[in-house]
Amino acid sequence: MTREEFEKLVLDTYNVSADYPFDDDLETGVFRHTGTGKWFAIAMRITADKLGAEQGKMQTNVVNFKCAPEVIDSLAGIEPGIYRAYHMNKTHWLTASLSECDTDTISWLLGISYDLTRSKIKRK
Fold first, then answer.
1. Considering the entire predicted model, what is its pTM?
2. Fewer CB in 10 Å around end: N or C, the chain?
3. pLDDT by residue (tens digit) across 31-82?
4. At what angle do helices 3-14 and 103-117 cross, to 10 degrees?
5. What is the 3-state secondary structure (H, E, C) of the chain?
6. How far apart are CA 124 and CA 117, in angstroms?
7. Would you kindly state where each structural domain of the chain is located, as residue ranges?
8. Which phi-psi region, left, alpha or beta, contains residue 22 (left: φ > 0; alpha: ψ -120 to 50)?
9. Residues 83, 112: contact at Cβ < 8 Å?
């Protein structure tokens, strides 16, 4: 999956486009819930060595998703393209390489992250 395909998936599924909040980095896009502004995904272009990959300084597109710790434990380092989060809390976030993961996996992780980060309904 390309970065453009991922951004289209998010737009088609949740009607959300990335915003670019970092003045010195116009490639890192944050996807937020409408209304609350909570992040549910962050797309970045990083070097593969930051994930421990052997490709070294080769650039790759990745997305960080929020997930339950048990999901992260069952996927990170086991499933191709799934890593403990780059530059985020490694207990609650994971990184998926867009070029290594299939579309179904990316869609599934996107749904999990969206659900985990949305506002909770308050009961009276």
1. 0.89
2. C
3. 999 989 999 999 999 988 888 766 668 889 999 999 999 999 999 988 989 9
4. 50
5. CCHHHHHHHHHHHHCCCCECCCCCCCCCEEEECCCCCCEEEEEEEEEHHHHCCCCCCCEEEEEEEECCHHHHHHHCCCCCCEEECCCCCCCCEEEEECCCCCHHHHHHHHHHHHHHHCCCCCCC
6. 21
7. 3-117
8. beta
9. no
| Assigned token pair, 82 | 């799934």
How many whole angstroms separate alpha carbon 118 and alpha carbon 35?
Answer: 10
Q: Hey, what are 120's tokens?
A: 């909770």
Burial of residue 109 (number of CB atoms within 10 Å: 0-12, 13-18, 19+): buried
**Strand 29-32 to strand 93-97: parallel, antiparallel, or no bridges (unpaired)?**
unpaired
Amino acid symbol at 103: T
For residue 99, which amino acid is it?
S
CATH fold for domain 3-117: Aspartate Aminotransferase, domain 1 (3.90.1150)
